User: Which sequence fits this backbone?
């Protein structure tokens, strides 16, 4: 099990976490209680689970819509089984939604904890 309490890691630290996961056939990524953090951390983490580049979401602006693209890690991506635990709306929920839409893993959501 890998616990990520906040999206506050540098891209190098995210790569280190994903590299450790690659040694396992299956991983549970625990994002419960994660209040969010840096977008660069979210993008790098999402990319760590895909070999290909993908559109994470559309950024809506007043006059146009811009796709937010995430670079996949190609040969260094974690391709094993993935389960994601979430309990709140933050970058965790966006990460889980991308994993779900791309049919990349299982999502288990629990009721949000009282803070």
Assistant:
């Amino acid at each position: 099990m890998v616990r990520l309490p906040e999206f506050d890691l540098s891209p190098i630290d995210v790569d280190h976490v994903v590299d450790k996961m690659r040694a396992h056939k299956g991983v549970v990524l625990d994002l419960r209680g994660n209040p969010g953090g840096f977008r660069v951390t979210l993008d790098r983490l999402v990319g760590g689970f895909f070999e290909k580049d993908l559109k994470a979401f559309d950024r809506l602006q007043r006059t146009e819509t811009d796709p937010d693209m995430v670079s996949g890690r190609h040969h260094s991506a974690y391709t094993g089984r993935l389960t994601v635990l979430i309990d709140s709306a933050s970058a965790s929920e966006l990460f889980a939604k991308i994993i779900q839409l791309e049919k990349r893993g299982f999502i288990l959501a629990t009721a949000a904890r009282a803070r």
Q: What stands out?
A: Residues 11-21 form the longest helix (11 residues).
